[in-house]
Amino acid sequence: MTAAPAAPGRVPNEAARLLIWIDGRLVDASDAGISPLDRGFTLADGLFETMRAYHGTVFRLDAHLRRLAAGAAILGIPVPADVPHMVAAAAGAVRDLGWADAALRLTMTRGVGPRGLAPPVGVDPTAVLTASALPPREPLPARSVRVCTATARRNEFAATAGVKTLAYVESVVALAHAHTAGDDDAIFLDTAGHVCEATSSNVFVVAGATLRTPPRECGVLPGITRAVVLELAGAMGLAAREDVIAPHDLAGADEAFLTSSIRELAPIAGVDGAQLPNGAPGPVTRRIAQAFAELVERECRP
Amino acid sequence: MTAAPAAPGRVPNEAARLLIWIDGRLVDASDAGISPLDRGFTLADGLFETMRAYHGTVFRLDAHLRRLAAGAAILGIPVPADVPHMVAAAAGAVRDLGWADAALRLTMTRGVGPRGLAPPVGVDPTAVLTASALPPREPLPARSVRVCTATARRNEFAATAGVKTLAYVESVVALAHAHTAGDDDAIFLDTAGHVCEATSSNVFVVAGATLRTPPRECGVLPGITRAVVLELAGAMGLAAREDVIAPHDLAGADEAFLTSSIRELAPIAGVDGAQLPNGAPGPVTRRIAQAFAELVERECRP
Q: Does residue B92 belong to any structural domain of this protein?
């Protein structure tokens, strides 16, 4: 799988600021390139990673690839050896086009299979990579979100808890409900009633100079930005730890924020209709976001 | 969407005894007909139904379509008006080819969308229909299965609990683990520890002349065959009810069996390595299976 060279003017979908590679081959967005028998389509039998490229460099690519490999081991899907090259080539194509930032999504499925759930043997995984140009990053207050608590619960007892499989329909439904209610996102609790995560972000709660985020045992996806925030906060002399968080800890927090690879940090302005006292963004959130931006510049500035 | 006429010798995939329609158009299995941006592929944002056609007639098609509509309402996906026609046309094509029985799978996704979880508006759903020829039905003892209890749990607190979404990767992983352990299928418990369902079947437990199957509250998919068995058992003078079932109720049952549209009834020969005393199949399972076969003949015989 090798990415076709991307030259401005010849690239499909450039008007839409979207590039798509299937198994390393650049295709047009209107191309129907996936088999209807692909198990990613029929059974959500696959994984994905969403990464942010800054100036043509994927932030923490190694961490994304490690997480992909860990998920692939749980599903029993072999990761094609050229996946790292595919992602780096896509980031390079984006840079050559002059896009500042881009969202890269790598989707990897078990491949095409016959009827039934049992994983077929000897099939080749399917790899799809999309690159979408991102608008300029918004300043911190503009990224603030109001969240509600989802009525559905995350399942910390799933074999795929914390694994970024294609099974995102629960998050789709929860996000649609949140939007209908006038909120920006929904916070899932786990089945024990502890705070877990938002529909596609991790959550941090700040009390005084202490940051807390739910541990893996609560079923959270181990976010790349989440891990970076834990590192940064420690280095800044803040107390930062994984800890079980009750809903009232979130509702009564001084500050809170979401993290994801695309949104980076998003301050939480309100929870279930009530504003957080030291709202969006509070001083700790601002400090972390500033440190995060500086880290990105150090690691990704050409 | 109208199904192309299917004539033997001109039909793609006839050698594989597999027919595929995408949005009503007959395609070849090697065709890559799905957009890489289809939300069924990227987010498991869709539903499916697996139906059995006998002699070219889909058993309980109306019940399948009602379940599809109920799931589509939860996901907020409009069901295309010609879906019933598509399924009936596929069953007719199968009959024209002389296949005795066939597994029909209807997959319906929200359609193609841009990046992100939020459901796009104004998109057309994608409908894929596959028909696979089934081998002659095995006699009852040959369908017996040994099951193990899955270590992962089903989430009865999901918004999509009991909805046949595309998010089947948990079942894929559990079935793979069961096969590795030398078992034929896995039984999920719900998060409270009650018996829920197998990876793609419902479960019934028989004690004396009483049949029990877990209720919707335990997160089970409301199986079409499950409903038919409850009807049949009542009509036969057996006590049949939905009831919370503990793992020791299953392990200590006189008889137990799985139900699904393709496998119909499958006797459970053993649970977690221990044989059921009145094994596979016991007298009640035999009576129900016989009544089920007679019902199918009445409803589907041309």
A: yes
